[in-house]
């Protein structure tokens, strides 16, 4: 027997609160996500790409519906599987998932147990199919592969957790790629915490190059990365697929000598002013197969004597100035925001499972949730709102109180008459319904 909790308020003794509101939901705005996913044909894409081996003799919730429930919970801001126990009878969740009740936490836990290595690849294929469809709607022909690695904390003796010297803590070390132009999450791979930044980057990138050169041709691809990706494996791969790259180089003695050779000082030198000098030259390290262009940015602060040098390796021709190359690289800073959004907004770095494979699957579900919201934001939001973070989107559009009323002929979802952002809600809904794939 469940005892309903009631609490009186101290500021007004006549006011009592309790969770007895009946057929109410605080997540009524998720119908926008449902409408968008139906427009995207997400269910059909999922059935086409995801085949989870299932030896259950009897079940109420199939694997695709469990995956969708996890995605909706993630988008709504419920980071733990146990949230499902309280959401089981939520009218909006039941409606968007077309169920009489949601799967419980234990059902979701068993779902993770059924995930295989092949399913991880299938989830990536599903993500790729969604991106391809959205790219056609955007009608864009250029791409930027922004490469980076990040950190996911682990707790206890989780499988393949290890110490990472850069982050000075235990955990995993995922490898990620975003489209720097749209913010789309192109790919992610969970790795042990001890691996170096660029470990496995060739095998990680090659399928992306193959796909965007053959299946979905693009006019130009640019690869950007920090000094962790300054490896011949990346240069050779980009050159093999006729793609540009701008990658930060770590300083060394030979590069420092080259940079200093471009500094000229005379008797009337303006030491009191800050100075920035851009230059470029061709350079070949021992591990490189050929000489490559290196752009140099030399910075001296006002009233200082020494220059600080930065280096970028690129295959842009000398028609593209060194200053422009640095400007192109600096725009990579937006990727840090993408990673923060994936982590803080979609729980990309949560590692709730003891097994490595299950944590990899959780990461992929977060990736799908991130992209669905990013697709909807970039395609359907109004000018001025396309850069809203998911925390703001939840507050304005998803976390809306509503009551679902059933009549003999229809369902009526009633929002509050005082929903502050109702104009934006209906504008976004209208844009979703106008989509033509």
Automatic annotation (TrEMBL):
InterPro entries: RNaseH-like_sf, Tnp_DDE_dom, Transpos_IS1380
Pfam family, one: DDE_Tnp_1_4
SUPFAM superfamilies with a match to the protein in the record: Ribonuclease H-like (SSF53098)
Transposase DDE domain ranges (all copies): 9-436
The organism's place on the tree of life at top rank: Bacteria
NCBIfam families reported in the protein's UniProt record: transpos_IS1380
Protein's name in the database: IS1380 family transposase
Species name: Vagococcus bubulae
């Amino acid at each position: 027997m469940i005892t309903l909790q009631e609490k009186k308020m101290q500021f007004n003794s006549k006011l009592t609160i309790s969770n007895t509101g009946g057929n109410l939901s605080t997540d009524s705005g998720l119908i926008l996500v449902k409408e968008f996913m139906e427009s995207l044909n997400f269910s059909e894409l999922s059935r086409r790409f995801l085949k989870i081996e299932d030896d259950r003799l009897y079940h109420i919730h199939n694997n695709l519906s469990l995956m969708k429930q996890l995605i909706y919970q993630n988008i709504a801001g419920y980071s733990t599987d146990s949230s499902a126990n309280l959401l089981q009878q939520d009218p909006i969740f039941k409606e968007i998932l077309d169920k009489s009740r949601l799967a419980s936490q234990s059902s979701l836990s068993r779902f993770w147990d059924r995930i295989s290595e092949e399913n991880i690849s299938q989830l990536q294929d599903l993500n790729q199919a969604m991106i391809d469809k959205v790219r056609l709607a955007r009608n864009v022909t250029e791409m930027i592969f922004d490469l980076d690695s990040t950190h996911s904390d682990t707790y206890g003796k989780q499988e393949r957790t290890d110490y990472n010297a850069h982050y000075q803590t235990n955990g995993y070390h995922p490898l990620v790629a975003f489209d720097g132009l749209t913010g789309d999450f192109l790919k992610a791979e969970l790795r042990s915490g001890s691996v170096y930044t660029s470990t496995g980057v060739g095998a990680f990138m090659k399928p992306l190059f193959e796909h965007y050169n053959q299946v979905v041709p693009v006019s130009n691809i640019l690869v950007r990365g920090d000094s962790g990706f300054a490896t011949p494996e990346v240069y050779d791969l980009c050159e093999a697929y006729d793609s540009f790259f701008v990658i930060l180089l770590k300083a060394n003695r030979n590069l420092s000598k080259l940079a200093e050779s471009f500094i000229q000082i005379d008797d009337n030198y303006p030491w009191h002013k800050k100075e920035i000098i851009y230059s470029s030259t061709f350079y070949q390290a021992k591990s490189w197969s050929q000489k490559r262009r290196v752009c140099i940015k030399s910075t001296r602060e006002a009233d200082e004597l020494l220059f600080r040098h930065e280096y970028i390796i690129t295959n842009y021709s000398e028609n593209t100035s060194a200053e422009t190359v640095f400007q192109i690289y600096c725009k990579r800073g937006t990727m840090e925001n993408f990673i923060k959004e994936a982590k803080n907004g979609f729980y990309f770095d949560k590692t709730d499972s003891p097994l490595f494979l299950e944590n990899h699957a959780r990461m992929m579900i977060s990736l799908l949730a991130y992209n669905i919201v990013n697709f909807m934001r970039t395609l359907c939001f109004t000018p001025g709102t396309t850069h809203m973070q998911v925390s703001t989107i939840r507050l304005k559009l998803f976390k809306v109180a509503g009551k679902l009323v059933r009549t003999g002929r229809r369902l009526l979802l009633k929002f509050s008459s005082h929903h502050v952002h109702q104009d934006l809600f209906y504008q976004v809904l209208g844009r979703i319904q106008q989509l033509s794939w």
